[in-house]
Amino acid sequence: MSRSYPVVAPGVEWREIDGSVLILHEELIHLLTGSSAEIWLAIDGSSTARELAAMLSRRHQGSAGVSDDVADFIADLTLRGLLVQLESAAGGYRVPSHVAWVVDDDGSVVIADLRSGSRRTLSSTATAAWAGVAVGKPRRALLQSILETFPDAPADYAGEVDALIDSLVAEGLLERRLR
Question: What is the total count of domains within the chain?
Answer without folding.
Answer: 2
